[in-house]
User: What shape does this take?
Amino acid sequence: MALQSHRTGWVYTTAMSWRVLGHRFSFILFMALSAGLLVIGHAQPDVIEQVRVKTVDLVSPVLDVMAQPLDAMEDLAARLQSYHAVLAENEKLRADNASLVRWQNKALSLAAENTELKSLLNYKNEPAAAYISARVIADTGGAYARSLIVTAGTVDGVRAGMAAMAGDGLIGRVIEVGDWSSRILMITDINSRIPVVVTPVGDQAILGGDNKPNPKLLYLPQDSNVREGMRVMTSGHGGVFPPHVPVGVVATSRQGQFEVVPFASLGRISQVKLIDFSLAGGVANKLARTLPAR
Amino acid sequence: MFAPLGQKTSQVARNFLPFLTTLFLVLLGVMVWPVPSLGDIAPTFGLAAIYYWAVYRPDLLRPSSVFVLGLLNDAVNDMPLGLSGLLFLGVYQLAVTYRRFFAGQHFLMLWLGFAVLSFCAALLSFAGLSLYKGVLLQPLAVTAQYVLTATLFPLLAWLLNRTQRFFLTQG
Assistant: This one.
């Protein structure tokens, strides 16, 4: 009995030692693999990007299912809120409508004048934009990056470089495209750099994100006449975006630097419009991968 | 002699429980919440789950699983692939090494252990990503994320404890 107990103890101890050794070996192996991936990712970003795109494609259906209850809750809350404020909203809409009718009349007369002038100059029109609507299923990056994952990919016609808008303004651009999902780099991300123009003064600048809520206006001319409240639009330089996509309004940060308050509310985005401006030659596509982001 | 198929399936599901719950929590961390800008400081639920399972059931969460979870976290969060693997594995190994100390004491020790380890992980990821991107990232958001993660840990630990009791102490 004592021998039996001794043998059992010996077998047990040996088995445990092997188990501990195996655990330590696998820990070291996977630490080395992780470090190796970091090095490969730095040296061969394209290879790693493919792994990332495929992984996101794989989990996007799960994220989509997980997002359904939250979307339903938000929808319900929005409905309840709108019922509550229906009278006040009606008054506001009437006032807005009257104002918009005046603007529509003005816009129509300006459009007619514009067409006439273009025909006189033999001007070639910009190609019409096509829109792809997509639902946001993940707000990724946490404290380190600003990006979104949306439910539209190559099967829906999404391409890298497309502009992404929410509500009235630009929110970013498509940087990775899988079959069923895409990633949008937001204008507030530290890697985002977009050529913009401030209207009506016409000063050009670069809109640069720094992971804060409002992106900054960088490289403004020395003699710039930019003031708070002026509108910021894409300039179209560099071929990443076409011109005149609305971005936001100029404001001054606490440090006295010009920043842009985006037209779109970036804190909570549930739907986006991906815009294909058909910039031929794949310039936008190429730039989306090579310009500042990655 | 042989266990019935249903019983075997049930056993396999139980063995995967720590992996599946951690996977769920990693994905939960990137959901679009109705609270504006919460995504900017979203808690790292995945790290908390790894710590919990490493302390209580390391036999059901192997380094290979932790590595896969790290890869997934990086892929979804647009971080350099491998970074979360290193951090998750580091926290996992330390939690396994000192698990008797963390698990045997009062809950406060478990919480404190997580607060210290997740602080180290936040510091390392902040420094690592700042170096990787070549710019100093915003320390405020990282701090807020850490505080939120550490504060929510008791709730998460309670939920994981209920899950563990329900699925792993039956049959």
